[in-house]
């Protein structure tokens, strides 16, 4: 066991929301280095199984609900999880909090990053395709992203290093006695 490993006091659901390419998954992968039992529920990976190719508002709502139910199941079995999901609408995140129904063991983390910076980070070229009209309904381009009004935690990946953002998340989880 490495000296840096952290084990959970209580399982939790960390709901990471932000624009595509804002750094959600990157932060979770960094957290997993120190929290080895942290399950990552990545929106892109889960979409293939749960809601392939349905990016309509109803499809996004349904996908978010399915992921929230999976996170609730993991929580029930004592597994901490970090959900890396755009969750573009306020309603999505409110529904997730209600579905998981875990009080302080649920936290919404807004991964804040400007659209311009997210576009610079986009190695897959999704934003460019969306701007050309090749991808319809892309969050931040022709579909809205509703920034959280009352996130439990905000990390600013445009102005913080990966390490600083991950440490901020760990300190937050410690403040809730989850780590």
TrEMBL record:
Gene3D superfamilies: P-loop containing nucleotide triphosphate hydrolases. InterPro entries: APS (IPR002891), APS_kinase_dom (IPR059117), P-loop_NTPase (IPR027417), Sulf_AdTrans/APS_kinase (IPR050512). It catalyses: adenosine 5'-phosphosulfate + ATP = 3'-phosphoadenylyl sulfate + ADP + H(+). Its EC number is 2.7.1.25. It comes from the Archaea. It is an enzyme of class 2 (transferase). Pathway: Sulfur metabolism; hydrogen sulfide biosynthesis; sulfite from sulfate: step 2/3. Residues 11-156 form the APS kinase domain. One of its GO terms (biological process) is sulfate assimilation, phosphoadenylyl sulfate reduction by phosphoadenylyl-sulfate reductase (thioredoxin). Keywords: ATP-binding, Kinase, Nucleotide-binding, Transferase. One of its GO terms (molecular function) is sulfate adenylyltransferase (ATP) activity. NCBIfam families: apsK. Catalyzes the synthesis of activated sulfate. Belongs to the APS kinase family. This is Adenylyl-sulfate kinase. It comes from Nitrosopumilus maritimus (strain SCM1). The lineage of its organism: Archaea, Nitrososphaerota, Nitrososphaeria, Nitrosopumilales, Nitrosopumilaceae.
């Amino acid at each position: 066991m490495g000296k840096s490993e952290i084990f959970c006091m209580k399982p939790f659901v960390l709901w990471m929301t932000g624009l595509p390419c804002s750094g959600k998954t990157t932060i979770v992968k960094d957290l997993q280095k120190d929290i080895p039992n942290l399950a990552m529920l990545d929106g892109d990976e889960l979409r293939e199984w749960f809601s392939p190719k349905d990016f309509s508002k109803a499809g996004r709502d349904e996908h978010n609900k399915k992921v929230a139910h999976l996170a609730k199941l993991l929580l029930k079995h004592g597994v901490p999880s970090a959900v890396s999901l755009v969750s573009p609408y306020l309603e999505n995140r409110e529904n997730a909090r209600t579905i998981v129904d875990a009080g302080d063991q649920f936290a919404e983390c807004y991964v804040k990053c400007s659209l311009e910076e997210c576009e610079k980070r986009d190695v897959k070229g999704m934003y460019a395709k969306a701007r050309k009209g090749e991808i319809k309904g892309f969050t931040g381009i022709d579909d809205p992203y509703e920034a959280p009004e009352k996130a439990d935690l905000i990390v600013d990946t445009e102005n913080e290093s990966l390490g600083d953002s991950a440490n901020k998340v760990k300190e937050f989880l410690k403040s809730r006695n989850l780590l």
